[in-house]
Amino acid sequence: MVRLINNIKSLFFTNSSRYARIITRRLNSSDASGQNIDVKKIRNFSIVAHVDHGKSTLADRLLEITGTIKPGAENAQVLDQLQVERERGITVKAVTASLNYTYNNETYLLNLIDTPGHVDFSNEVVRSITACQGVIMLVDANEGIQAQTVAVYSLAKKNNLLIIPTLNKVDLPRADPAKVKSQLHSLFKIEPDSVMSISAKRGWGVKELLEAVITRIPPPSVDTKGHFRAHVIDTWHDKYRGVLCLIYIHSGKVQVGQAVKWKSDLKPHTVKFLAMLRPSEDPVEEAVAGQVVMVGCGPKAGGKVGDQLLAKEVGDDDEGSSAPPVKHMVYAGIFPADQSQHPQLSDSIKKLALNDSAVTVTPDSSPALGQGWRIGFLGLLHLEVFTQRLLQEYKAEAILTAPSVPYKVKIKGAKAIKQYKGDEVIVTNPLLLPDVKNIEEYYEPFVIGTIITPVEYIGAVTTLCHDRRGTPLPSNAVDDNMTMLQYVLPLSEVVIDFHDTLKSITSGFASFDYQDYGFHPSALVRMDILLNGILVDELSTIVHTSRLEYNARRLTEKLKEMIPRQMVQVAIQAVVGGKVLARETLKAYRKDVTAKLYGGDVTRKKKLLKQQAEGKKKMRSVANIRIPRNTFIDVLKR
Question: Residue 388 in contact with residue 381, Cβ under 8 Å?
């Protein structure tokens, strides 16, 4: 009995501070509920920029000015909540924070979305701006316009968003605001007088920028009187509450206890959780059109990104917005280190895929690795971050196979068409490539790459693009010192190490971004890797014929370096259609079996050596070649 009483006391005191914080937030934010919000005083905006131009630092200053957090080093990068974001110093997830700010004696609700800047996470930016009416386009006053700056500007213009051009880091000695303003005018026709200048680190000009958000960005154009309708921006999994969704409300209002349905299944559900993110959860009873809020319908109910949450009365045939389809650039196999861990890894992947809607997961199997999954990613960094999050957030260790890009083949013959359910087949796994006899034509994915580089590196960049089978497009001068080059490049030549090589040859000054350009005919073949005559499925790749010999030599040489020496000799071969293009031999460990001999007839020595040779021959026939788990991804890096 005494132990029970002590446990109850411990539980109460552990949770009392949490409940006190929730009650305090509710009392201090009486205008946070939907019924007290005037839609004309809502501003939804995102911060968009190239990598490392100061988006997260600016978000911290905005949170401080609005009183959401206290100033201090311990509150740096508040919106970068993932461990991988803090370790790598990059933003991976777009995060929302609803802020209250008083301007001219009027209280405004500002829904801020801090977005990633790397091209691999551009899908987060695309989804974020669907809930915005304007963006702060941040440009580093030292570096000037970068490739991703061009991409986010085009994206904002395409979605008819108001753009507030802003120069950051103007306090640094190398800053040249006049030069960067000239670049903005040259490329985007932005008038220099409309460009704001700030130092997010020091807080200079941030208050004026916040007021510009209120005065320049229009309120959301929504229907407050209609039926409730919202679309899902993001989803994640909670251990106790199930799937939670971040939604943007297009019309009507939503309340706790209200009956709703998902457009994808039309099954009725009840709203059980409703909160604003500040950025921690602030529970509310009601939210209205124009707001960005978190909603949950219980452990057995959940939506997906791009789905719509509707009032029960809304008809099934009503139209609404939906998320644009995701185009995956890289596919890789993920397998458990041990098949006994398959259920745990499966559960972890499903939960992480909720929080990262840019991935696609399909079951896969391998003779060497067992049951696993084939997962589509937006790029190699996306792949690395996904597997790192699996390990850090779910303690799930996985084996990666070599990443590859999707290809398309045209099938010939009526029988083949019937077998493959169509005359064109998308191939995401080299092992699933149809028989060469059934293939009429191969198609390779291409991208339009945008490179902004100093003029002194144009020669090196041009050589790199030509080496990667690039076709030039018309270029533009950014200013006297910077040039914007565009090339049509094969995706397979871009996703692995193009960005790293570009940074290396330009001393880090060039920036790169790419956009999908579709599939185009190409001369392709499948190249296999054999270890002692045994096919290693996970290392099979689809290669352009012009790169066959180079790729074969590079793969075999790198495998020789990366595979640990075995007790038997290992022959590493690159094979195409039965023809060996390259071979490397990994020497075996050699034990001196004659070391114990100190004399006697030479036949004793020959006998021991013969026994050793016969033992190695037998071992070679049954040996399991041990390949390090990192080999599958590292081996494709040049």
Answer: no
54 assigned ligand-binding residue: yes
Q: What is the DSSP string of 457-494?
A: GHHHHHHHHHHTT-EEEEEEESSSSEEEEEEEEEGGGT
114 is in an annotated binding site: yes
Contact call for residues 494 and 451 (beta carbons, < 8 A) = no
Kindly provide the b/e burial profile for residues 240-250, where b requires at least 16 CB atoms within 10 angstroms of the residue's own CB.
eebbbbbbbbb
Q: Which two tokens stand for residue 42?
A: 């809502």
Confirm whether residue 360 is marked as ligand binding: no
Question: How many CB atoms are closer than 10 A to CB 420?
Answer: 14
Closest CA to 53 of 128, 116, 98: 116
The residues near 74 (Cβ < 8 Å, ≥ 6 apart) are none
Angle value at C-alpha 187, between 186 and 191, nearest 5 degrees: 60
Give the Cα separation of 115 and 90 in Å (integer). Answer: 10
In a 3-state reduction of DSSP, which class is residue 292? strand
Mean pLDDT, to the nearest integer, of 456-476?
92
Nearest 5°: the CA angle 383, 384, 385 is 95
Structure tokens at 365: 């199997």
Q: Is the Cβ–Cβ distance between 248 and 130 less than 8 Å? A: yes
Domains of the chain and CATH, by start: 27-216 (3.40.50.300), 222-325 (2.40.30.10), 330-400 (3.30.70.870), 407-522 (3.30.70.240), 526-634 (3.30.70.2570)
Strands 439-454 and 407-411 come out as antiparallel
- Residue 118 marked ligand-binding: yes
Highest mean pLDDT among 1-5, 172-176, 238-242, 330-334: 172-176
Most confident of 87-91, 357-361, 481-485: 481-485
First to last CA, the chain: 67
Residue type for position 316: D
Give the mean model confidence (pLDDT) for residues 418-438: 78
Backbone CA torsion sign across 512, 516, 522, 527: positive
Cα(565)–Cα(588) distance, integer angstroms: 6
3-state secondary structure of 242: strand
pLDDT in tens, 586-632: 887 766 666 677 777 778 778 777 877 776 665 544 445 666 555 65
Question: Is there a binding annotation on residue 317?
Answer: no
Establish whether 168 is an annotated binding residue: yes
Q: Is 253 annotated as a binding residue?
A: no
The token pair at 307 is 């789905």
- Confidence check: pLDDT of 182 > 80: yes
* Longest CA span, the chain: 106
49 in a labelled binding site: yes
Per-residue pLDDT of 222-246, as tens digits, reads 988 888 999 988 888 888 888 899 9
Does the annotation place 169 within a ligand binding site?
yes
Q: Are residues 173 and 85 in contact, defined by beta-carbon separation less than 8 angstroms?
A: no
* Residue 382 assigned to a binding site: no
Identify which of 297, 312, 318 has the alpha carbon closest to the alpha carbon of residue 244: 297
Q: Are 430 and 405 in contact (CB under 8 A)?
A: no
